[in-house]
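Quick one - first record:
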Amino acid sequence: MNAIQFKTYARHGIIKIPNQYQNFLDKELNVIILVTDDTAKRKERFFNSVKKHSFQLPANYQFDRDKMNER
């Protein structure tokens, strides 16, 4: 039996197997899921990304939905 280990995320019930392990896809697999509690790390990465891509709007800025939807 071969064993491999990698980190990934389950999205909508699907676990992505990295490209280097694609040869395992046509074989019977025994799957053991070890859940990592990295909620704090994910939350920190998210807010760092938001801060990195944020900007200041002028104090008198008003959103105009009609103007935004003009074609």
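second record:
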Amino acid sequence: MYHFIAIMSPRRRKLLFTAGAYTVWCWFCLFLPFIIPLPFSLSVPSLVVFLGFLIAAAFNKAPAAEERFLFSYPRAAAYLLALGEAFYWCILLWIVVVILIIATGNAGSAGAIGGFIASLAANVFFLAKTHFAIRREGNSSETVGVAEVEDAARLFFNMKSEQGENLVCASEHGRIIFTDKDFKPAAGILQAFYPGGQVLCKAYAADGVPNGVAQWFYENGAVKAERSFADGVLNGAVKMYGADGRIFREFNYKNGVKDGTDKEYYENGTVKTERNFVNGVLNGIVRAYYENGQLFREFNYKKGVKNGAAREYYPDGQLSKEAEYIGGKIYGKARKR
């Protein structure tokens, strides 16, 4: 997660997120008539919707969609927050423009054009500022496993120290690190919470980096996932559970990258898929199974590319088709049985 997002208070983030979404809608409404003739204006109903969301955000009650969006699309969310920041600056700019028009007694189009250009410049400025901030953070973690580290960092969202202080979670030099608002390393038990107060995540940090097993929970308190860390780096088993407590996936990390067997399970506990990673790359035979445990298909991978025999089977175990891959491409024709 990016530093400038992580250090924001939840309320400010909600306000900026709402304003950013409204800004995107405004630009859409502005340029859509040039593409598709509209029989009526969309701006009035959108303003009503925006005011509702803004009031909700002001009271820290904005929809959970904001957090889900931040989890799933952090880069897009960063740009949306930048547009939100530009929105509030644009309000100040337009207040100045209106005051100047009233003071000079000139209601001509010059003031409106000037306000539009200033608003456009503010949007471009904040988008560019965010872009370069993301670039700087990306360039600070040029080590093996950066993608995995950043993916794991996104899971540590809205973490708080034992004293209840909001923490920054980011990837730094190939490992995850927690700091307070003054960028001092956090230590002890760290937790994040659902809006209702239930524990969402619990981890232990020493000198700012997570160590040991970190746990994520469902709202009912059941364990959702467990990930092992060593000195801020994913290292060891990762297990994911259903709300009923059954394990549905497990794999392993070694020094920040996937290494070893990755298994998924059906609800009845039988293996669904099985594959092997070597230093973060698929290598070896990948197998998928029917729910009754019968082999469904198998491929062979060499350094992340399909290479070798590929077979598919009927539920009764009879071979249905087979093919040969070389360098990721089928050699010859697939043969059906």
